[in-house]
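Re: Re: token formats

Sure, here are both.
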Amino acid sequence: MEAWVPAQNRLQEVKLWLAVLLACWPLAARDQFAKFELDLHNMASGSRTAIIESGRVVWRNGKITEAACEAPVIAERIPHALLDTPAPAPPGATIRQVLENTADGTPGEEVLENTVFVDALKPMARVGRLPDAVRFASHEHKALGWFDQKYDGSEILWCHGPSLLIVQVEVSGKGILALVVSGDAQVEAGNIARSDIALAFFKDVAGLEVSQRDEWIAQALDEFHRGHREASAQLVHQALDKFPELESMPDVSLLYLFAQLRLPETEASATAVIRDHPSLPTAWFYYGEYLENSKRYREAAACFEKITMHQPPWHNWTVAAARKELTYLKTY
């Protein structure tokens, strides 16, 4: 009996420590993501968000019920034997090249956002409903059907739908980290660094080095999408004062922002983007809109005709939009 009492005491002691640890774990988890949660609050996005670490949800802000992004799901269902066969578009590319976003060597051409292309692949893919977004993001994926880019030396895979964004990054010591955002998650011009939520995830959760320049651009885009044109323009001017090279960077998201705000920097931005990406229909469209708003109608029409008359035909949302603008310009 004398030997049993100390053993029982030790057992009670272990149980007590376990209770303390279990009580502290939710608090520790909250502390781990406190900075990210604060940044989300400051963005006032209202988005529902989840963070997944090595396949396990470790933080959640609201319930996410959306299905996964269609393009990568369809891509992963394509039989491997068909990947190196001709793609529905663009001409001369294989399905694999399009799904890796390397069909013409220019990432960001938005081929993967073309619903006609994705619909053409559906008969080749195995039939089945789109999986739940959080469950889908909990698995490691190949780059097929995802946008693939580097940020601070890390490979980022991401995809998005009308009201969904999924971002995956591999972090040393943590494995695969994933962000799932349901709600208003704008991403401009195929560049995940233009999402303020994604940048907060990189900095606060993944531990990546995020540049102040990217943060300012993302914030300016976010303010513009919320209808706060004056706040967006103010952020742009502050960024240009500190980073004057922004004016001549070949960055289509900057061209979009400058053109929408009708800033004189649009001219230099358009020159840089079109010089480096002459086959980027969005660049021609954003510049055409700027010229049209500046009442330079003949130059605007030339930009829109560049889109509608291109051979081989471009498969992009700008084609229909450019035709609409040309019809409107004929009234002048």
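Second one below.
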Amino acid sequence: MNAEDIKKLGKELGADMIGIASAKTLNAFPPDPLWPQTPEKILPTCKSVIVVVHHIPVAAFRAKSNIPVQYMDMLILRRMDRISYKIADTLERQGYPSFVTAAQETDWNMKSASYGYLSTRHLGIEAGLGTLGLEVNILTPEFGPRVYLTGILTELELEPDAPMTEQVCIGESCSRCLYSCPTDAVEHYGINKRNCAVEAQEFGFMTATNFFMKYCLASHEEKKELIKSRDVFGFWQGLLRVVGSFGDCPRCLAVCPVGNDYHAHLASPQKVIPEKTPEKVAKAKGFKEARKNGDEVSGLNDWNIRWVGPEGYQGIVARQMQDFKKLQKAKEEETS
């Protein structure tokens, strides 16, 4: 099988997008050289990484509660596992050992907080599917950041896709992700993981360990009250269907104006950002001035600019919006 055969198979199985990154390139450019996330650490004989993408249906971001997004996350991750497994199985049956990596994983021996053997965001960028946004989610032109990715490591050498060089994220002059973040975790092409986890992992690992430490030290009467608390229900939901333990906060995904899904279904309900404050506006202004002045920004240094988009923002969202409007107008004329 060649690259085009695999992409065709992936689309037939239900993937929204599929790209290919060279293992050699991924080994040479780990996201953090101090804690390298590279294919060779998992499979030394890996030649290529196939990146499978599935979008998150936008209706979940129109809901008043976060629960629909959390539940959709679980369904999408399961679907992606099935799609990726079938691709890997097909390759192996043709004589090319291949396997699927966990879409979301953490190895506490590598680095604190959520940090797995591979960064799926960076896999997607190297496979030509998007670039990093201000909040360091991957932004795809088709669906913005409302996507999940997983990778298939294979010993088959495939023609890799070229990374995008134009920055997909509008950047500092937009800053809608910064304005919407309830814990002010968005940095200048970076993220404060501790702050983000407060909302994104309301019932995550650290929340659970802290709760049960408190429970172990409590009196008999206090334990009876704690066991009936909302936290215990949250942990149960997290174990049952991931709700609350992963991807609990969708705000930066919901307000990002990149993607035709946003133009079609989110522009109106997400136009106003209630979390926007004068302090956040000042922070965004500082980011903009820093970039304009060429100040040293770790998220935009010579190493990281590779994934942000070395050519900078050149109007991809504006062009996309104009094309979308033309398409909508054409559809209206057809039906009138």
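The chain has two domains: 3-166+299-335, 176-293. The chain has a mean pLDDT of 90.
- S.
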